[in-house]
Amino acid sequence: MLCEFACANNMVVMNTNFQHKRIHKITWLSPDQNTASLIDHIIINENKKGVIEDVKTMRGPNIDSDHFLVKAVI
Q1: Range of the domain at 55
Q2: CB 24 within 8 A of CB 16
Q3: How remote is the C-alpha of 28 from its chain's centroid?
């Protein structure tokens, strides 16, 4: 559904595919800390995707969630 939405609105899905250590790519960690996944993304207009320099997770801030914040550097 996310890909369909992005395509229909001329957008691209950005994630943590930039070169980083594994801990800066994971966006979700299971409560037992055995399963990790990259399930959170940033969506941007296709004509603006060149302004994104980096995307990575921020592990420090406590947001009371099993997800990590995803930060984009523009």
Answers
A1: 2-73
A2: yes
A3: 10
Residues 29, 38: contact at Cβ < 8 Å? Answer: no
Rounded-to-integer distance, Cα 74 and Cα 60, Å: 20
Based on the structure, what is the number of domains in the chain? 1
pLDDT band, very low/low/confident/very high, at 71 (cuts 50, 70, 90): confident
Only one residue has tokens 């060149």, namely 50
Long-range contacts of 35-39 (CB under 8 A, 24+ apart): 39/67
In percent, the amount of the chain with pLDDT more than 70 equals 96
Distance of alpha carbon 28 from alpha carbon 38, whole angstroms:
6
